[in-house]
Structures are given as C-alpha cells and as structure tokens.
Amino acid sequence: MQLLSIILIGIAANLDNLGISVAYGLKSNRIPIIYNSIISLISMLCAFVSIQLGNFLSHYLTNSAANMIGGILLIGLGVSLIIASLRTLKKEQPQSIAEVKDITLKESILLGFILSFNCLTIGFSAGITGVSALFASISIGLFSFLSVLIGTWIGYRIGNSLFGKYTDIFAGALLIFIGVYEIFI
C-alpha cells in the first residue's frame, strides 16, 4: 500500500511540471537532460526536506500559503513572458518558428525552485502520514524528470504546428492559468 502511495505522490507532485513544460515547449525551448536532472534534483531535495519537516512546518505554513507563493511566481513568469513576446512582435523581425533554443542553467535552477513549491505542499502532507521520505523523494524526482521531458516535447510539437509566432503569448497565458489554478483551486 505504501508503494502505491509513493507512486501517486510522485505523480501528483508533478502534474504542474507537465503543464509548465508544455509552455516551455511551445516557446521552442529545449530543456537539456542535464538541466532537467537539475530541476528533478531540486524537486527531490525540496520534497525530502519538506517530508522530514512536514509535521513541524505544517504548523507555520499552510498548504494554501505554499500554493499561493508558487502561483504568484508562475503568474509573474507568465506575465513577463507575454510582455517580452509583445515587445518582440512590435519589432516584427522575421524569425524561424522552429528555432530551438536551450534554457540556461540559471533558468533551470529558477524553474526547479518554482516547480518545487508544489512538492512542498505534498511533502507536508506526506510527512504527516509517515510516508518514507527517501522513496517518496525519489518518486517525485523521477516523475519530475519524465513530466518535463514529455511536456516540452508535446509543447514543441503543438507550438510549431498551430500557434506560430504567438507561442510565447500562449505559453505565458498557460503559466498564468496554472498560477491562478494553484492559488484559487
């Protein structure tokens, strides 16, 4: 029974990762395996710490507060993406829609911490129930890696066929939607 709980915790902690990585794929951003590994490691470490300290920390930071912080960061990222895209569209320089660019190390670390906020809330809950911190953290890290890999692939495929030069605006709107969802749902 605990194995099923550990797998479900890994999946639940990374549903946002899938949506966010689709947004990155829509922008024709590639997340190299090494940076995806960094994102997964950050999620795994944050989950481990939050599970270990879940009982203690849950008295000071509620699940809704952690969702609020993560949601605000995602909304900010989405808004900045839309503003940058609108500035680029104003200049209207022709560019290749399929131009793929890798995210930077700095972006991967920032993204890892933003995505780990969801792991904190799940970690609080898991810590209270007594789930193995080690195995739950490994599950979260593994599913983080897979969801980012699959999400960017899906986003890239959709973005280059449907949205053309407006992919950054759509990706920003998707990040804002996920952020609002985190805050209010």
Characterization of this structure:
By secondary structure, this protein is mostly helical. It has helices spanning 2-12, 15-26, 33-52, 54-57, 63-91, 105-129, 133-163, 167-184; strands at 29-30, 101-102. The protein has a two-stranded parallel ribbon with strand order 1-2. Helix 2 packs antiparallel against helix 8. The two termini are 28 Å apart. The model has no long low-confidence stretch (mean pLDDT 80).
Please summarize the sheet with the most strands. Answer: 2 strands, parallel
N-C termini distance: 28 Å
Percentage of residues in helical conformation: over 70%
Shape: globular
Number of helices: 8
Structural classification: mainly alpha
Number of strands: 2
Mean pLDDT: 80
Order of helices and strands: HHEHHHEHHH
- Radius of gyration, in angstroms, nearest whole number: 17 Å
Beta-sheet strand percentage? under 5%
Short structural description:
By secondary structure, the protein is an all-alpha fold. It has eight helices and two strands, in the order H-H-E-H-H-H-E-H-H-H.
Reconstruct the topology from this structure.
Blueprint: H1 2-12, H2 15-26, E1 29-30, H3 33-52, H4 54-57, H5 63-91, E2 101-102, H6 105-129, H7 133-163, H8 167-184
Helix pairs in contact: 1-7, 2-7, 2-8, 3-6, 3-7, 5-6, 5-8
What keywords describe this structure?
185 residues; mainly alpha; two-stranded parallel ribbon; 8 helices; 2% strand; globular
